[in-house]
Design goal:
- The chain is α+β, with helices and mostly antiparallel strands.
- The chain folds into 2 domains: 2-206, Orthogonal Bundle (Helix Hairpins); 217-393, Glucose Permease (Domain IIA).
- The chain has 6 helices and 13 strands.
- The strands form 3 sheets. Strands 1, 4, 6, 7, 8, 10, 12 and 13 form an 8-stranded antiparallel sheet that branches.
- Helix 1 runs antiparallel to helix 2 (52-114), helix 2 (52-114) runs antiparallel to helix 4 (131-206) and helix 3 packs across helix 4 (131-206).
- The longest helix has 76 residues, at 131-206.
Length: 399
């Protein structure tokens, strides 16, 4: 039982190590994909040299992802170093065990040769004082033969395991060398991008006040839009209360809507992204502007930069609560999922109508591309009643 426990523990540790390795690989792949998308954004923004701020934002984004990729690769290298150290320890221990086994086996062979004749074995049995003693001697001889066979099999098995350890060690060292090479290349690219960023920052500093004013103006416009969305949600809540003959600050749900809300909540952390492909260029909450550090920005959702022509899609089944046509902004679609609301801002075309039922991943509109910056971005928000939620906690692998 004790042996089984240790075997189970060892398998559990190995399984956890494999899971961690797979998680690091998946995270690394996502970072590499994001860097490819950011390179495309930089290429697009470079076509519009007049907007230095957009280019600086994109380059800063690449620097952040490149730095994250380097740190993640370092973690992989450290993990490999641990694996190599453990492997070397196992190889040394196995070699020592093999030496003992081979010595014992050699001693047995020598002893067996000294008494190898059939006559000696027969005399050993026949010289017994009783039938019972003869039986025991015969059984001993069989056990001794079986033990010799077992020792031989153990030597063969441990030799095979040792060969596998050595093979793994060679593979681990090759993988480590490849990671170090890749990290060196990534570091060189980061240094190159950093030089470019320093040059752009020099240009930006000359117009920092102007850019800060632009950011504040944009933030004020965003706050007005958020206020309008809040008003529309409150209106919908009031309508649901009036229909139910109650007065609360939350949605009064039908049994069907309750089931939908419960299903939505149970998918927290697993909801699909509102775009097929994109990167997070602005996170949820209050934060310093990534470039103009003297300016603070606030977001009740996330901004996703996407390729030109990308369509927004519903993250879950629901009903179109409203289509907001706010003065001075692009259309916004609000979709209700029980007492949860998802918001899709900055569309150039809308494919759905108010009151229409939509399914998960259904295209609801085309995302607007700014002609001045060549930037295509969707602003996505999620609310429980009127309370903004962090989309990174709801959407699959957004953290």
């Amino acid at each position: 039982m004790k042996r089984f426990f240790w075997l189970f523990l060892l398998l559990s540790v190995l399984g956890t190590a494999q899971d961690k390795k797979a998680a690091l690989e998946a995270q690394k792949k996502r970072l590499q994909q994001e860097i490819v998308q950011i390179n495309a954004l930089i290429k697009e923004s470079a076509k519009k040299r007049a907007n230095v701020l957009t280019e600086v934002e994109n380059v800063q984004l690449k620097m952040d992802r490149q730095d994250a990729l380097i740190r993640l690769t370092n973690r992989q290298i450290n993990r490999l170093n641990q694996d190599i150290t453990l492997n070397l320890r196992n190889i040394e221990q196995l070699r020592q065990e093999l030496e003992v086994l081979k010595k014992n086996y050699a001693d047995m062979i020598v002893a067996a040769r000294k008494n190898k004749s059939t006559q000696n074995r027969l005399m050993f049995v026949l010289s017994s004082e009783s039938f019972w003693q003869a039986y025991k001697r015969l059984a001993y001889m069989k056990q001794y033969a079986a033990y010799r066979k077992q020792q031989g099999e153990q030597i063969a098995a441990k030799t095979k395991t040792l060969q596998q350890y050595n093979k793994d060690l060679v593979a681990q060292r090759k993988e480590k060398e490849a990671l170090i090479r890749n990290n060196r290349i990534a570091q060189q690219e980061l240094d190159s991008v950093r030089k470019k960023q320093n040059s752009l920052m020099q240009q930006l500093k000359k117009r920092e006040r102007s850019f800060a004013a632009q950011i504040k103006k944009k933030q004020k416009k965003q706050e007005a839009i958020d206020k309008e969305i809040d008003r529309l949600i409150r209106e919908a809540i009031a309508a649901s209360n009036k229909k139910a003959g109650t007065k609360t600050t939350t949605f009064v749900l039908t049994p069907e809507a309750k089931a939908l809300a419960a299903s939505f909540a149970s998918n927290k952390g697993r909801l699909p992204w509102p775009v097929a492909k994109g990167i997070v260029t602005q996170k949820f909450g209050t934060q310093r502007h990534p470039v103009v550090r003297t300016t603070t920005i606030k977001s009740n959702g996330v901004t996703l930069s996407v390729p030109k022509g990308t369509e927004a899609r519903s993250v879950f089944e629901g009903k179109v609560l409203n289509i907001v046509q706010f003065k001075g902004s692009n259309p916004i679609v609000l979709i209700q999922h029980g007492n949860y609301i998802t918001s899709y801002k900055n569309l150039s075309a809308v494919y759905v109508k108010k009151g229409e039922r939509v399914s998960a991943k259904q295209s609801i509109g085309k995302i607007f591309t700014n002609k001045d910056t060549n930037k295509t971005a969707l602003q996505f928000s999620l609310f429980q009643n009127t309370t903004p939620q962090n989309p990174a906690l709801w959407l699959y692998q957004m953290n």
